[in-house]
UniProtKB/TrEMBL annotation:
Name of the protein in question: Uncharacterized protein LOC109705173
PANTHER family recorded: OS04G0610000 PROTEIN, OS10G0409366 PROTEIN-RELATED
Lineage: Eukaryota, Viridiplantae, Streptophyta, Embryophyta, Tracheophyta
A Pfam entry, by short name: Transposase_24
Length: 210
């Protein structure tokens, strides 16, 4: 990530997007990981808000402009990028809670174990929220929701968009040469979810019926 931040403003990095304005290609994972570093600056993405939807639009626009300083991407992808930034922002807060809040029992120990990337006042604000009844209730709801999850993403850091692109490129010619056909829903989001969580099978064409 340091290499990306070190690029000059006139050396924008390319990033391909699919028709849904989602990042694809060999550098897609690196791009989404870069988004995670963007939201770890409390001056640009304050942690004092309970929900990403509450973060003022001026901060989101600033984050978008920071991304565009390093990547050559079209404005059509802004909606996806902002949403992805929100996911990374939430993930960062969850990481902080697990490593620096849940690991301690007292207020003093939690305050002292501040991640150096977090602004002191914002860290105390987070601790106060997690200590509150509202924060405790939200934590319980999240725990219950996780316990109800019945399928799990098994493709590591690859997104559904990345998987869809890989599957399309790898299998178009193979299907034609091997006499295989895909179910009609293959290119849908439901199918990509299936690829990421379960094995998917192909069916042999009945040559007599063809």
């Amino acid at each position: 990530m340091l290499k990306i931040w070190a690029t000059r403003d006139d050396e924008l990095l390319p990033q391909k997007f699919n028709k849904f304005d989602q990042p694809i290609g060999d550098d897609a994972i690196k791009f989404t990981n870069f988004l995670g570093t963007v939201v770890r600056n409390g001056n640009d993405a304050p942690l004092i808000y309970k929900d990403w939807r509450q973060v003022p639009s001026e901060y989101k626009e600033k984050l978008w402009n920071l991304v565009k300083l390093k990547y050559d991407i079209e404005d059509d992808s802004m909606s996806w990028v902002i949403k992805a930034l929100g996911k990374k922002w939430k993930d960062f807060k969850c990481e902080l809670k697990k490593k620096h809040y849940d690991a301690h029992k007292t207020y003093e120990d939690r305050v002292a174990d501040r991640d150096p990337r977090v602004i002191p006042d914002q860290w105390k604000h987070l601790i106060d929220f997690w200590n509150s009844e509202e924060g405790q209730a939200r934590c319980l709801r999240n725990k219950v929701n996780r316990s109800k999850q019945v399928t799990f993403h098994t493709a590591g850091s690859k997104s559904f968009a990345h998987i869809r692109e890989e599957e399309n490129v790898a299998n178009v010619n193979e299907d034609a040469s091997n006499g295989l056909e895909r179910d009609a829903w293959y290119s849908s989001s439901s199918c990509i979810h299936a690829i990421s969580t379960h094995r998917i099978h192909y069916k042999k064409i009945n040559e007599d019926a063809a």
